[in-house]
């Protein structure tokens, strides 16, 4: 590991992953070239074991490979083993990560069953403790991780920077011939906070393959700058994400913009998309965005994705959008079953196109494609299977018939797992 500051590190060659030390979290490996792991976080009250277990199960079934929960009170810590039991009764074995702030050392000490049930502890060096207590409380958590053989994510955060580190760096900055600007000092404080904490954890006895780092901020350019620097200065596995991405399209766009640049440079071993859900919306949206980001970049395949044209003045009605939505929703609903049953089904490609201009061409590139009639075209919809025109659909039942064709294709083209 190099601990030197390198503000302009050369990005990794596109397509190559930055080498990192692998960390095992339950059955999941993060880093060392393992597939980039999707994770998420609940927003239920952890003290409510029933609701929290239900949401963890939903997130896991949507494809979250790790799920984090806040552990903020003695009652929340006491609920953790009951959450784990409920999940096991539901047949959900996703590793649960405990998120600790301020009182993690006390909660882990007083609730051994919580310490045991969690697959990883996440701590924030900016609020693990203050003043003289900071070092002892940090050490107490690391010692608990050693006692229970758990990995730890040291997650520094722009919004809760270690103020003693900021003060030290400001003093250092005053002695520079050309002082850094304030954002450079803050970036360095974030990175040094994570790296120094990791070094301290290793001194206490935690192995390098039990440590994951993150340095989260909420700005796209800042995140890219921080992670390029962090990645060049260590070989710990890295967790990527904006600390608060925001709501709706803004959250999705900001997360994708920041993470895509870093992932393309080979930086990042696990990702979380910190979306604010729309009121009443499912928490699983953040999992779908994370999967779609990795899949559209060609880094992983999770579920068949529908290629659909945007539609234009040549499209005749909303039917084309409705069909694309119906097909994508059908695939997502079926995927928990298909994933278990059919080997490789996640690589299936689908196209729903609005007219003859690009419809047949795009449909031929997909495993299954349909080209709906545009303005002035005959009211028929040719379906292409593996590049060949297989049939033409007409009438009011096109959506159901197309979904039937899809189901038959999956059942006949993918081997049952274990065959
Ligand atoms: S395929 Fe046809 S309907 Fe779709 S955007 Fe292109 S021209 Fe418009």
UniProtKB/TrEMBL annotation:
Transmembrane portions of the chain: none
Pfam families linked to this entry: GcpE, GcpE_C
UniProt pathway annotation: Isoprenoid biosynthesis; isopentenyl diphosphate biosynthesis via DXP pathway; isopentenyl diphosphate from 1-deoxy-D-xylulose 5-phosphate: step 5/6
Chain sites annotated for binding [4Fe-4S] cluster: 309, 312, 355, 362
Top-tier EC class: oxidoreductase
IspG TIM-barrel domain boundaries: 23-290
The reaction(s) this protein catalyses: (2E)-4-hydroxy-3-methylbut-2-enyl diphosphate + oxidized [flavodoxin] + H2O + 2 H(+) = 2-C-methyl-D-erythritol 2,4-cyclic diphosphate + reduced [flavodoxin]
Assigned keywords, A-Z: 4Fe-4S, Iron, Iron-sulfur, Isoprene biosynthesis, Metal-binding, Oxidoreductase
Chain intervals for the UniProt region annotation (Disordered): 1-21
InterPro entries on file: Dihydropteroate_synth-like_sf, IspG_bac, IspG_bac-typ, IspG_C, IspG_TIM, NO2/SO3_Rdtase_4Fe4S_sf
Cofactor: [4Fe-4S] cluster
Boundaries of every IspG C-terminal domain copy: 306-406
GO BP terms: isopentenyl diphosphate biosynthetic process, methylerythritol 4-phosphate pathway; terpenoid biosynthetic process
UniProt similarity note: Belongs to the IspG family.
NCBIfam families attached to this UniProt entry: ispG_gcpE, PRK00366.1
The protein, known as: 4-hydroxy-3-methylbut-2-en-1-yl diphosphate synthase (flavodoxin)
Species per Swiss-Prot/TrEMBL record: Dyella tabacisoli
Gene that this sequence comes from: ispG
């Amino acid at each position: 590991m190099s601990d030197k500051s390198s503000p302009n590190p050369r990005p990794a060659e596109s397509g190559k992953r930055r080498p990192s030390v692998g960390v095992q979290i339950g059955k999941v490996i993060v880093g060392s070239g393992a597939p980039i792991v999707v994770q998420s976080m609940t927003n239920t009250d952890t003290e409510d074991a029933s609701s929290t277990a239900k949401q963890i199960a939903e997130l896991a079934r949507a494809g979250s490979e790790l799920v984090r929960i806040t552990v903020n009170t003695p009652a929340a810590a006491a609920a953790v083993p009951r959450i784990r039991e409920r999940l096991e009764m539901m047949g959900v074995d996703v590793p649960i990560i405990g998120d600790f702030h301020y009182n993690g050392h006390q909660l882990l000490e007083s609730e051994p069953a919580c310490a045991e049930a969690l697959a990883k502890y996440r701590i924030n060096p900016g609020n693990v403790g203050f003043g003289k207590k900071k070092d002892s409380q940090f050490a107490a958590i690391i010692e608990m991780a050693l006692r229970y053989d758990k990995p730890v994510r040291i997650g520094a955060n722009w919004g809760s920077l270690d103020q003693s580190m900021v003060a030290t760096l400001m003093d250092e900055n005053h002695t520079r011939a050309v002082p850094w600007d304030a954002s450079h000092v803050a970036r360095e404080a974030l990175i040094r906070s994570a790296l120094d904490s990791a070094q301290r954890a290793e001194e206490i006895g935690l192995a390098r393959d039990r440590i994951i780092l993150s340095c989260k901020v909420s700005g796209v350019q800042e995140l890219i700058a921080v992670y390029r620097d962090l990645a060049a200065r260590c070989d710990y596995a890295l967790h990527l994400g904006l600390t608060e991405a925001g709501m709706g399209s803004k959250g999705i766009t900001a997360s994708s913009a920041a993470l895509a640049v870093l992932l393309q440079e080979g930086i990042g071993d696990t990702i979380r998309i910190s979306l604010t859900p729309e009121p009443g919306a499912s928490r699983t949206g953040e999992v779908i965005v994370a999967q779609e980001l990795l899949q559209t970049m060609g880094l992983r395949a999770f579920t068949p994705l529908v290629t659909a044209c945007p539609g234009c003045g040549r499209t005749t009605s909303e039917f084309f959008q409705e069909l694309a939505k119906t097909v994508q929703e059908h695939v997502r609903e079926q995927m928990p079953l298909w994933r278990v049953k059919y080997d490789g089904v996640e690589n299936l490609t689908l196209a729903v196109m609005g007219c003859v201009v690009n419809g047949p061409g795009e449909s031929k590139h997909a495993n299954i494609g349909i080209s709906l009639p545009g303005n002035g075209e005959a009211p028929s919809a040719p379906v292409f299977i593996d590049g060949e025109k297989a049939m033409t659909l007409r009438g009011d039942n096109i959506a159901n018939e197309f979904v039937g064709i899809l189901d038959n294709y999956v059942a006949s083209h993918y081997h049952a797992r274990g065959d």
